Amino acid sequence: xxxxxxxxxxxxxxxxxxxxxxxxxxxxxxxxxxxxxxxxxxxxxxxxxxxxxxxxxxxxxxxxxxxxxxxxxxxxxxxxxxxxxxxxxxxxxxxxxxxxxxxxxxxxxxxxxxxxxxxxxxxxxxxxxxxxxxxxxxxxxxxxxxxxxxxxxxxxxxxxxxxxxxxxxxxxxxxxxxxxxxxxxxxxxxxxxxxxxxxxxxxxxxxxxxxxxxxxxxxxxxxxxxxxxxxxxxxxxxxxxxxxxxxxxxxxxxxxxxxxxxxxxxxxxxxxxxxxxxxxxxxxxxxxxxxxxxxxxxxxxxxxxxxxxxxxxxxxxxxxxxxxxxxxxxxxxxxxxxxxxxxxxxxxxxxxxxxxxxxxxxxxxxxxxxxxxxxxxxxxx
Length: 381
What we know:
- This protein has three domains: 1-111 and 284-381, Isopropylmalate Dehydrogenase (3-Layer(aba) Sandwich), CATH 3.40.718; 122-138 and 180-276, Rossmann fold (3-Layer(aba) Sandwich), CATH 3.40.50; 143-176, no CATH class.
- It is 42% helix and 15% strand.
- It has 14 helices and twelve strands.
- The longest helix has 21 residues, at 358-378.
C-alpha cells in the first residue's frame, strides 16, 4: 500500500482554553501515525495586546507555507475594550481591532463555513450540515452608525411616501445593508450542492426570509434555481429561517444540507450546536477555492483557562474535519468514532454534568481512536 504524502499544517493554538484543548488534542496525530508536519504560530488577544495586531505578519507567512490551518479558540472583544488593552505607546496610533477569524476568512477568501450537526449523544437519529456564507450578507461590513450621505436621499424618499419609522436627521439612525452578489451566491450554492453530493445528502434547503426580504430573496432564489439545475439528482427547497429553526429542534432528521447567508447561517449553526449537546461538540471548517482553516466553534472562555474544565471534543472533531479535507479519511473516521464513544460514556467534562477534566477526556478519546483506527483497518470495528 502506498503511504500518503505528508501534509504540512499551521497550528494556531489561540487564547484561553483554545491553547489547552489544542495541546491535549494534538497527541492523537502521533498515536495514529498520521502523516502531518506541524508548524506553530501565534494569533489572538495576546498578539493584539503586545503589538496592536491580532494576526502578526509572521503568522500570515506561516499560513501561506502550509497546506491548511488548525485554529484554536480565540478571544475577540468590542472596540472600546480592545483599545483599552493596548499598551500606552500604541493607543491613538490608528490600530483597529479586527477579529482574527474575520481577517482569516476575508484575506484567504474562505466563503463557506461548514458546520456538521450529528446526533453524538443519541442513536444517530439525525445528520445534517449547515453551510453559512462567510463574506457577504448582513456581515459584509456595510454597517454604519449614522446614515451615509449616499443613502440619505433614499430614506428621504421613503419617508415622503409614508415610511413607518421616525428620525431627526442622519445622526438619529443607524443602518446595516445586506449585500448579496451573483458571484458570491453562485459559489455558495455550488459548494452546497457539491458538498451534498460528496457526503451523500439527498436534499439542500436554502434558509432565507422570502416573505419579508422579497427582492433580495428573489434574486437569490433565481440563482439557486440555476445552480440546482447542475445537480438534478439532489432535491432542493427554500424555507423561512424561523420555520427551519423550529424544525431543526422538532425534526432535525428531515434536513440534509442547510445553506444560508451570513447572519442567518450564523444563527442556525449555533442552534445546531445546541441540538448536538452544546458548543463543546461543534467543529467547523472555513473553506475557499484555494485555502481553508478549521476551528472549534466554542469561545476561548478565559475564566476557565488553565482549570482543566473545557470539553476537548470539538477540537478533536475539528481535526477530523481537517483530516477528511486532506483525504486522510481512516484517521478522520476513527477520531469521530472515538469522540462519540467517549461522549456516551461516564467520562465527561463539566458541561455534560461530568467530573472529568480536559486532559482525562482527551486521553480517553485518543485511546479509543487508536482502537477504532486499528479495528477499522482490520475490518472488525
